[in-house]
Design a protein that fits this description.
By secondary structure, the chain is α/β, with parallel strands linked by helices. It has 2 domains: about 1-145, NAD(P)-binding Rossmann-like Domain (Rossmann fold), CATH 3.40.50; about 175-480, Dihydrodipicolinate Reductase, domain 2, CATH 3.30.360.10. It has helices spanning about 10-25, 45-55, 65-70, 85-100, 120-125, 150-165, 180-190, 220-245, 255-270, 275-280, 405-410, 420-425, 435-455, 470-480, and strands at about 1-5, 35, 75-80, 105-110, 140-145, 170, 205-210, 280-285, 315-320, 330-335, 345-350, 370-375, 380-390, 395-405, 460-465. α8 crosses α9, α8 crosses α13 and α9 (about 255-270) packs parallel to α13. The chain binds 6-O-phosphono-beta-D-glucopyranose.
Length: about 500
């Protein structure tokens, strides 16, 4: 059952993802999709809309056989989300759908609705017994971010969810964890023997985690201005990338074993005091700028639904420390922003230079350090940069790369990133979902920054031209320590 069935998320991601799963034969023949929306609509009209959404967003033509399989399984139910009566009728609708099925029927509720609608939906689902697990039938609820607005509201959200659902029924979705390359990080680290021994403070100089976008706020100014890059990207997506990079090997691939290790990383992140926040965090906001001689993008403050004097950041860079035996003193630099020079998400692990300068009597002036780059998007892959001798009589070195590109080895199936997460939720595997303690630990880390912004909303904010590499202050964060961000600019 999808709440918000005619909304953007359902249209662009969820329905195309269900279609992709159907194409792969991954859905149960007994499945029914019930879309819930505010405006009354017949099943037929909703089916037509779903077909059009799939055609527009699934990438490629709608395969007639798959659609013929899926179409009769699509229904629509009308509900006013704040109205208790509506849930009684949703319950009747579900009973009617399930009445024709043999055995226990599981129910997965997807809350693809604005955050403000969530409390009502959760409460009513609980009060009308829609999520009661009786006789072994499972009931699960997928919740979209934002998971709160700060530590306090995140905790209040946890309490609200827990009042009606057991933690094992709650699937807090983070679409970054559905990305193949992100999942591959665990395979890369724990299915290979050669990386783990050097994955620590003895060999690693620092780690850079970048999620750069060229898009702006894309008509979501109202939501975004209340969030900013820190809440929209860092507290969730980037912290999950950090956790997967820094976590200890889990004792098994059982969901909680993996999630326990991820949450430990967040608990180990040093909580900055106000001075450290000022030294280690840079916020940015884009002003006018153009990409490759194209038409200039408007400044953030002129985007629809953004106040003209907004101090919301569209870029954040920060330095964090994971205080444990493996990572003590190794800086983790995180950056994320909109309207940057290039769309690029990657994790770069930079290793220390060799301890002894054997080449000192040669033309080799300095070494380039080894860097292992896990490219999340685009051009998914993994590259290792190392030094090689340039052919010739003189000893000179050049940086070269061993590069694995996903596209060269595996056929890519069209995907929105939601396929594996929806599939896992249906199968009851929460490994790739956030747990309440993880969400709250993430908020603890950003809380000192939020505290500073509460008293000084314009703190740490620097302007940067749209389609640039972000504010100069973000570069200084690294250059003053003799390091540099990996290039974002093209060419
Ligand atoms: C979402 C954010 O969670 O992730 C958006 O709310 C952002 O602001 C998006 O654009 C980025 O996702 P992706 O998959 O395009 O990198």
């Amino acid at each position: 059952m999808i709440f918000g069935a005619t909304g953007d998320l359902a249209m662009r991601k969820l329905l195309p993802a269900l279609y992709h799963l159907a194409t792969r034969g991954a859905l149960s023949p007994a499945m029914t999709i019930v879309g819930v929306g505010r405006r009354p609509m017949s099943d037929e009209a909703y089916r037509d809309k779903v077909q059009a959404d799939i055609a527009a967003f699934a990438g490629g033509d709608v395969e007639p056989g798959t659609w013929a399989w899926l179409a009769p399984r699509v229904r629509f139910a009308h509900a006013t989300l704040a109205d208790s009566e509506s849930y009684a009728s949703l319950a009747r609708r579900l009973d009617e759908v399930e009445g024709t099925q043999a055995g226990q029927v599981g129910r997965l509720f997807y809350l693809a609705t604005p955050p403000s609608a969530m409390p009502d939906i959760v409460r009513h689902l609980g009060e009308h017994g829609l999520v009661r697990e009786t006789g072994g039938a499972w009931r699960r609820v997928i919740v979209e971010k934002p998971f709160g607005y700060d530590s306090e509201s995140a905790h209040a959200l946890t309490l609200l969810l827990r009042a009606h659902l057991a933690e094992r029924q709650i699937y807090r979705i983070d679409h970054y964890l559905g990305k193949e390359t992100v999942q591959n990080l665990m395979a890369f680290r724990f299915a290979n023997g050669i990386f783990e021994p050097i994955w620590n403070r003895r060999y690693v100089d620092h780690v850079q985690i970048t999620v750069a976008e060229t898009v702006g706020v894309e008509g979501r100014g109202g939501y975004y201005d209340g969030a900013g890059a820190l809440r929209d990207m860092v507290q969730n997506h980037l912290f999950q990338l950090l956790a997967l990079t820094a976590m200890e090997p889990p004792i098994s691939f059982e969901a909680d074993a993996v999630r326990d290790e991820r949450v430990k990383v967040l608990h180990a992140v040093h909580l900055c005091d106000a001075d450290e926040v000022r030294r280690r965090v840079v916020r940015g906001q884009y002003v006018e700028g153009a990409l490759d001689g194209g038409a200039p993008a408007i400044p953030y403050r002129q985007e629809a639904d953004v106040p003209v004097a907004s101090t919301t950041e569209t870029f954040v860079a920060m330095k964090l420390f994971v205080e444990n035996w493996r990572w003590a003193d190794v800086p983790f630099y995180l950056r994320s922003g909109k309207r940057l020079a290039r769309r690029m998400s990657e994790i770069a692990v930079q290793f220390k230079c060799p301890p002894f300068r054997l080449f000192e009597d040669t033309a080799v002036a300095s070494f380039e350090p080894n860097v292992l780059v896990i490219r999340i998007q685009p051009d998914e892959g993994i590259a290792l940069r190392f030094q090689a001798k340039v052919p010739g009589a003189e000893v000179t070195l050049g940086g070269v790369e061993m590069d694995f590109a996903y596209a060269d080895h595996f056929a890519a199936a069209p995907a929105t990133g939601y396929e594996s997460l929806l599939y896992d939720a249906m199968c009851g595997d929460p490994t790739l979902f956030h747990r309440a303690d993880m969400v709250e630990a993430g908020w603890q880390v950003v809380e000192p920054i939020l505290a500073l912004l509460r008293s000084d909303p314009g703190a740490l904010l620097h302007a940067y031209p749209a389609f640039s590499c972000g504010p100069e202050a973000a570069d200084t964060l690294l250059t003053r320590e003799g390091r540099a961000w990996r290039p974002l600019a093209r060419g």
